[in-house]
Amino acid sequence: MPYLDPLSIGNKKAMSSDFSKIDITNKIKAEAQRLGFSACGIASAEHVESLHQTAYMSWLTNNYHAEMHYMQKNIEKRLNPQLLCEGTQSIISLALNYYPIEKQCTNSYQISWYAYGKDYHLVMKDKLYQLFDYINNTLHPIEGRVFCDTAPVLERFWAWKAGLGWIGKNNQLIIPYQGSCFFLGELFINIELDYDSPQTNRCGHCTKCIDACPTQALQAPFLLDSRKCLSYLTIENRGEIPQEFHSALGNRIYGCDECQKACPWNSKSPTTTIEDFNPSTSLLKSDNNSWNSLTESDYQKLFRKSAVKRAKYKGLMRNIEIAKKNSK
Ligand code: SF4
Ligand code: SF4
Questions:
Q1: Each residue of 271-327: pLDDT tens digit?
Q2: Is residue 52 a contact partner of residue 154, using CB atoms and an 8 Å limit?
Q3: Sheet with 182-189, edge to edge strand ranges
Q4: How many other CB atoms are there within 10 angstroms of residue 56's CB atom?
Q5: Domain tally for the chain?
Q6: pLDDT digits over 190-226, tens only?
Q7: Which domain holds residue 132?
Q8: For residue 164, which of 145, 148, 144, 179 has the smallest C-alpha distance?
Q9: Active site residue 149
Q10: What does DSSP say about strands 144-147 and 182-189: parallel, antiparallel, or unpaired?
C-alpha cells in the first residue's frame, strides 16, 4: 500500500482564495511535523453534530461510563467548543505515536503500551504549548487553549472531524497506515484556518476487535461498556474488580491492549520516535517476582512521572494480586 503522508491526510475542501490562511495552515502542519506529531488536522469549531451527540447521551444513559462520573459533567461544554473556550474558530487536532520500539517479555505481568514511558499528559502538553507559541509568535497573534485528556473535549470526534482518521469499531481513532496507538491533543484557537474533511470509516466487515475482547466489553461496533472493560477496571476503577473478570484479566496489571492488537490497521504501525515513550530498562527487567514484592517506594521510583500513577499503588497491587493468582 502506498505510504500516505499523515500530515496531508483528510480530503481537502475546495481551495480558498485566502492564500494567507492556507499559508498559515500549511506552516502550522509543517511545524507540527517538526515537533514530532504524526498527524495534524484542522476542523471548524462548530457544535458537535447531533448523531455524535445522541450516541454520547445514550452511552451515558446506559451507564456505560461506569463510575467515571466526570463524563456526565459539563456536557454542554463537551458538545459546544464555544462554551469551553469562547471565541474558538478552529480546532487543531494532533496525534503523537506511542507504539513502543521494545515491549515487555510476554511472560511477565503486562502494562498497557501507552503507559510504558513518561506520562503522555506532560509530553503532549509541552509540544502543544510549543506549537501554540509558534503560531502566536511567528504566524498570527492568537488566543485560545490547549487540551490533552484534561478537559471535557470529545477528542476522538475532533480528530475524526479534522481528517486524522476514523473512529473504529473498537472506539479508537485509526489513522490510515499508522494504526491507533496515538495520544490525541488539541489547540482551540480564535483564528479561521483552512479546514480538513472527515475520513470515511474503513473498518468494513471486520470485527476482529470485538471478537478479541476478553470480556465482551465491546458490546457491538462502536459500543463500549466500561463496566466490563479491563482497561477501566484496572485503572479508573477504585473499588474491587468483580470476580467474574478475574480470569479474563490474565497477566494484565495495568490496562489492556487486546482490541488494538487485534486490529489489522495496527499490524504495520510505525514505532514511536518520541524517546520519552520508550519503556525504562527497569520496567523491561521487572519479572513477576519483582512485581509481586513491589513496595510503595519501588513503585514511586519505577513510575515517577508515569501515567501508571493514575491507578495508585493500592490499585496496582490489587491488580497484581489477581495476576499472581492467575499465574498459578
Ligand atoms: S481494552 Fe480490552 S477489555 Fe477493554 S474493550 Fe479493549 S479488548 Fe475489551
Ligand atoms: S479490528 Fe477491524 S473492526 Fe476493529 S477497529 Fe480494527 S479494522 Fe475496525
A1: 999 999 999 999 999 999 999 999 999 999 999 999 999 999 999 999 999 999 999
A2: yes
A3: 39-44, 90-97, 182-189, 144-147
A4: 18
A5: 1
A6: 999 999 999 999 999 999 999 999 999 999 999 999 9
A7: 1-328
A8: 179
A9: yes
A10: antiparallel
Selected catalytic residue, list 23, 149, 194, 276:
149
Distance CA 258, CA 170 (A): 10
Which ligand 1 atom is nearest residue 228's CA?
3
| Residue 117 near residue 279 (C-beta atoms within 8 A) | yes
| Residue (of 263, 266, 261, 239) closest to 250 by Cα position | 261
* Pairing state between β 252-254 and 110-111: parallel
Sequence-distant (6+) residues with CB within 8 A of 307 are: 114, 115, 119, 120, 121
- Between helix 120-134 and helix 19-34 the angle, nearest 10°, is 140
**Nearest ligand by distance to the CA of 173:** 2
- Dig out the grid coordinates for 131 from the structure: 506549537
Rounded to whole angstroms, the Cα distance separating 287 from 109 reads 7
- Kindly report the number of other CB atoms within 10 A of residue 312's CB atom: 14
Look up residue 128 and give its three cell numbers. Answer: 502543544
Give helix then strand counts, H and E, for the chain.
Answer: 14, 12
The answer to whether the predicted template modeling score (pTM) of the entire model surpasses 0.85 is: yes
Which of 215, 260, 261 is the best mutation target for the ligand 1 pocket, counting ligand atoms within 8 Å of the beta carbon and taking the most? 215
Q: Which residues contact 67 (CB under 8 A, 6 or more apart)?
A: 236, 237, 238, 239
How much is the pLDDT for 20? 86
